Amino acid sequence: MPEHTFRLNGEQVTVDVADDVRLLWVLRDLLGVTGPKYGCGISVCQACTSHFNGKAITPCTVPVSALEESDEITTIEGLPDTVGQELHPMQEAWLEQDVSQCGYCQPGQIMTAVDLVRRASDEGRQITDEDLDGIRNICRCGTYPRIRDAIRNGAERM
Amino acid sequence: MSEPGASPVPRPGAHVVARRRFLGYVLAGATLVTAAAPVLPAAAEAEDAQTADLTDIVDLNDVMTLAGKPTSLSITVEVHDDGTVSFALPRAEVGQGITTSTAMLIAEEMDLPLDRVRVTLADARPELLFNQLTGASNTTISTYTPIRVAAAAARLRLMEAAADEFGSEVGALTLRDGVISDESGHSADIGTLAAKAASETDEEVDVELKSAQAFNDVGEPQNRIDALEAVTGRKKFAMDLAVENALPTMVCRAPTINGTPASVANADTVLEMAGVTDVATISTGVAVRARTFGQCIDAVRALEVSWASGSADGLSDADVLRELEGAEPRMPLPLPGVSRLEEKFTFHFRNNSALESNCAIADVRSDSAEIWSGLKSPIVAQGEIAKLLGLRQSAVTVHVTESGGSFGRKLFFDAALEAAEASKAFGKPVKLMWHRADDTRQGRTQPMAISRVRISHTRNRVLRYDQRHTSVATDLSHGFGDVVTAMAAQVPGLDGTFSQVFFQLSQATSYDFGLSTRLLNETNRSFNTGSMRNVYSPNVLTTRELMVDRLAREWDRDPYELRRDFLDDERSRAVLDKVAEVGEWGREMPEDTAQGIAFMHEYKSVCAVLVEIDCRPETIERPIRNGVAGPRVTKAVCAVDVGLAVNPRGLEAQMQGGIMDGIALALTSGLHLEDGHFLEASWDNYFYTRQWNTPPEMEVVVMPANGEPGGAGELAVAPANAAVACAYGRATGTMPTTFPINHGDLSFDPIPTEPPIPESPTDGLDDAV
Question: What is the pTM of this model?
Answer without folding.
Answer: 0.93
